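Table S2 (text version). Query chain:
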Amino acid sequence: QVQLVESGGGLVQPGGSLRLSCAASGFILDYYTIVWFRQAPGKEREGVSCISRVDGSTSYADSVKGRFTISRDNAKSTVYTQMNDLKPEDTAVYYCAALNTGRCDSRWSEVDRVGSWGQGTQVTVSS
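Corresponding structure-token output:
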């Protein structure tokens, strides 16, 4: 079965850190560009970060630039996102998705490019 499984979420205080993992099962992660999305209560799902298949280059939403870092370990078929200096507005369910593109192009954050979604992992930032 082909799937991506997200993990690592939890409750953290403002200013804290978390590292999310996105593990591939049933397919070779190396062949895909991977994107993290998130959906906060009452809001639309949005693209957060992207890491390309070709050269590992990255793109970020303005709201997380300088605080989040996406990385990939192809040997472990896993993509990570390190989230630092977390804010209450980062509270959301976080999802990862595989794009059949070589790079993080201008449309990497478009939700409708994703064919299927995993269950996500909840991140709650609160004091």
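Notes on Table S2: DSSP finds no helices and ten strands in the chain. The first strand starts at residue 3 and ends at 7.
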